Every structure is written in structure tokens, then in C-alpha cells.
Amino acid sequence: MTYCVGILVRDGLIMVADTRTNAGIDNISVYRKLHILAESEDRLIVCASAGNLSIAQSVLGQLGEGLPPLEVGDPPRRMSDVPTMFRAAQLVGEAVMGVGRELGPALHSANVDAGIAFLVGGRIGNSPLALYLVYEAGNFIECLPDCPFLQIGATQYGKPILDRALRYDTPLDEAMKVALISFDSTIRSNLSVGLPLDLIAIPTDRSRPVIRRRIETDDIYFRDLSARWSMLLQESRATIPDPPFMAELSTRAVPTITGNKG
Question: Quick check: 165 and 178 in contact, CB under 8 A?
């Protein structure tokens, strides 16, 4: 299992992924799940993967080599050539379907989960930033302003903070903070998600730099964020009045128990 989140707000695009692939008392391994699919002067396309690792690697391998051309004699179809982010999501979906047809039956017969999902985000040319979630079947949805984030993997633990704190007009640095709190909540509740985290932040303003970072287990900021969030949750909980109906416990008369006299 893993956890990945993509956030698309007015100020830019954020993608964060953990790196844990197996978890247990003595079985923890690390694998990068945030990948650059294409990067040049006119495009930056990023993806994050969750699910079966062999399927993900095969999909990434096919995208790197290029998918078969639609017409005989044409070159392979690559991310470096797609004209729009919509076409980029289509290409990832096609690769997912192809690998699923090739490897899926053998994995299912061996009772191995072949599920996979990808977040695909970035921009091409002068088009705005875009973010898509590609499902196991190859179909996909687009991230829109009314819900400015998409998740894959162990989504349930980090979703509440995203639902409450994110809006399309949330500043990019604030959105990154919310994303990291979402990961902190997930890491605390799910052993299969863990540090290091890989992240990228692509500002809408092209004059601003793209931020790329790996957050290791000894990262000072992430440790401070985790400690502050725990403290603030405790303080906020204490300020909320107790349920009034629980007051009955202290006001109800306690029955007197008397013994039988012999």
C-alpha cells in the first residue's frame, strides 16, 4: 500500500508520494513512486503511482519506450510528443490497460492483487496546469476547482484535513502544509505508509522555480509540523464543551445499596 496526493489550486500544482512498498516488523522497503514522465522547455509531466509495484514499473517502462504507433510507419507515441495534458492522461490509461491485459491474468491466478492507479499532472506549452487520476481500467477523471485534490492508495486517513482545509484559492505554500499534515495523519494510522516522502510543487507563475524535495525521516520541518499538529489537536479538543447529555452521569442520584439484616 502507499499514499499519494495531488493538489491543484489557483497558485499551482503539488504532488506528494510516500516511498514504502512493504511493511511489517522486519520487512520494510523503499521505492520511488513520484516520477517525471517528460521534462523540456515546453512541458513538465509528473506522475505518482499506487498499487501493484510490478504493474507500475511495467507501465512506466512502456511510457518510457513509447507506445505502439496508431499508423504503420509512425514513431512510437511518447510523453514528449503529446499535445495536451488530456492526451497525456489518455496515454497513461492506454499503457495501464495494455499492461493489465498482459500481466493481469497471471497475477490474478496467483491471487496477487493487480490493482493500480496513477496521478498524472503538469502542463504543456502555454496551457494551464492540469491533474488527472487514472484508474486500473484505464479511464480517468480530471481535478476541478470545486474539489482541488485527488488521492490514491491509503486515502481515508488523510482525506479529512484535505476536505476541511483546502480550497481552490488556498495559497500554494499553505496547500503544501495541508498536504504534509495529511501525510502525517496517514503515517500515524497506517503502517504501510511511511517516510521518505517525495514531492514537487509547480507554480502557476512560470517565473517562479519548481520545488522538488525528498523529506527524510530526520527532516526538521516535518518533525516540527507533526509535533505542532498533535499539540494543537489536543488543545483544540480541550476547548470544545463536553456533550451536555453526559452531565447526567454526575447529577443522577446514586442508588444506596443496603445489605440484608440477619
Answer: yes
pLDDT digits (tens, 9 = 90+) for 66-85: 999 999 999 999 999 999 99
CA distance 101 to 59: 12
Closest CA to 151 of 1, 32, 7: 7
Query: Minimal CA–CA distance to 20: which of 10, 31, 9?
Result: 31
Separation between Cα atoms, residue 24 and residue 229, nearest integer Å: 26
Find the domain containing 167 and state its range. Answer: 3-222
The CATH number of residue 126's host domain is 3.60.20.10
Cell numbers describing residue 204: 502557476
90/63 Cα distance (integer angstroms): 12
What pTM did the predictor assign? Answer: 0.92
The answer to the question of residue 235 being in a domain is no
Asked, for residue 233, whether it belongs to a domain, the answer is no
Counting the structural domains of the chain, the total is: 1
In whole angstroms, what is the distance from residue 97 CA to residue 170 CA? Answer: 35
